[in-house]
Amino acid sequence: MQIAALSEKILEGDRRALARAITLVESGREDHRAAATELLERLAKSGRQALRIGLSGTPGVGKSTFIESFGMMLVAQGLRVAVLAVDPSSARTGGSILGDKTRMEHLSREKAAFIRPSPSQTNLGGVARRTREAVALCEAAGFDVVLVETVGVGQSETVVAQMSDLFLLLLAPAGGDELQGVKRGIMEMADIILVNKADGDLKSAAMRTCADYSGALRLLRKRPQDPTGFPKAQTVSALQEAGLESAWQEMQTLATWRREQGHWDRMRAEQARYWFVEDVRQALLARLQTPWARERMAELSDQVAAGGMSPTVAAQDLLKGLGVSA
Ligand code: GDP
User: Fold this and answer.
1) Is the CB–ligand 1 distance for residue 199 below 6 Å?
2) What's the 262 CA to ligand 1 centre distance in angstroms?
3) Strand spans (E) along the chain
């Protein structure tokens, strides 16, 4: 299909066209890259914006159950919801644990929903770029909410936070009274912490965990993009569909405030800046991975180790070979 025609279809909200376009941005082929860039440039003119929600949590915390219930609630309100994933484990295995659509059985059958598994790529940088582009495609296709899910294993949270307007951290009730070892850096990214499984026997533990996190959040440095009371923690039960309405209200309150105060645009501008630098960095790193570069690097590093060359001269030699002047 011609790019112009594909672009039209996406703007009409055609899900098959959207799926094709995402396959195009995921492709590593050079001609596909060129076509994808042209498509994205075209679609950027639509100026459509979705509410981009990042969602992180360790395996088993209830992410897919939450997305299913939360997504269905939004669909019931007449909203169109897209779900994407950044799955660092698929980068390692080539398969995707977040790829299984049956995890969101009902949502995946909804016409107003679009679910796309994580691309299998060899590195997080590659997955990041493709997901970011997929988010842009979903926005152009008129989705109101784009959920980007990731497994909480370090770096991938940063990647998702940098493509989101709001960042949710999903936690399970803690057994003891410890703070589940959630890293401070991840807490600092969260706009809303949702303590899931607040039902049945787990309810009181969930309430306690929520109170602990509310306390911990209050101790964090105040960020300019937060109104009073944010970031905050609250309990939900994805399974019993409890607290979802209230969580959605909090998200909307925060998003509206950020829009009104100009933080929304400023955050997106900062993200664009981040991704520009990141793309340059990734492209330069990729150059170091070519067979020639690896071989030359090994030779030069041996020479440096043997004292035949200084590290500075060797680095300059390699960079010159790569066409990058030092
Ligand atoms: P994910 O790995 O984060 O996607 O977690 P899942 O959504 O697959 O959920 C892991 C397990 O927790 C499943 O057995 C779910 O049924 C269960 N679970 C998810 N949400 C809730 C909840 O709100 N309450 C309870 N009690 N169990 C839940």
Assistant:
1) yes
2) 36
3) 51-57, 81-86, 113-115, 145-151, 166-171, 192-195, 232-235
In the predicted model, is pLDDT for residue 145 greater than 70?
Answer: yes
pLDDT for 153: 62
Domain coordinates in residue numbering, the chain? 1-45, 48-261
User: How far does residue 64's CA lie from ligand 1's centre (Å)?
Assistant: 7
Distance CA 9, CA 7 (A): 5
CA of 149 to the centre of ligand 1 (A): 15
- How many Cβ atoms are within 10 Å of 243's Cβ, its own excluded? 20
Residue 99 Cα to ligand 1 middle (Å): 17
Q: Counting atoms of ligand 1 from 1, which one is nearest the CA of 200?
A: 26
Please indicate whether residue 150, judged by its CB atom, sits closer than 6 Å to ligand 1. no
Q: Is the pLDDT of residue 152 over 80?
A: no
Q: Are domains 1-45 and 48-261 of this chain identical in fold?
A: no
- State in Å: Cα 83 to ligand 1 middle: 17
Is domain 1-45 given the CATH code 3.40.50.300 in the classification? no
pLDDT per residue over 266-306, tens digit each? 999 999 999 999 989 988 888 898 999 999 999 999 999 99
Amino acid 140: pLDDT: 97
> How far is residue 291's CA from residue 235's CA, in Å, rounded to a whole number?
51
Dihedral, 133, 138, 144, 147 alpha carbons, nearest 10? -60
* Integer angstrom CA distances of residue 79 from 51, 76, 108, 144, 281: 11, 7, 14, 6, 37
Q: Is the CB of 235 under 6 A from ligand 1?
A: no
CATH class of 48-261: alpha beta
**61: Cβ below 6 Å to ligand 1?**
yes
pTM: 0.90
* Shortest-distance Cα residue to atom 10 of ligand 1: 60
Pairing verdict, β 81-86 and 166-171 = unpaired
Cβ of 238 below 6 Å from ligand 1:
yes
Share of the chain above pLDDT 90, in %: 70
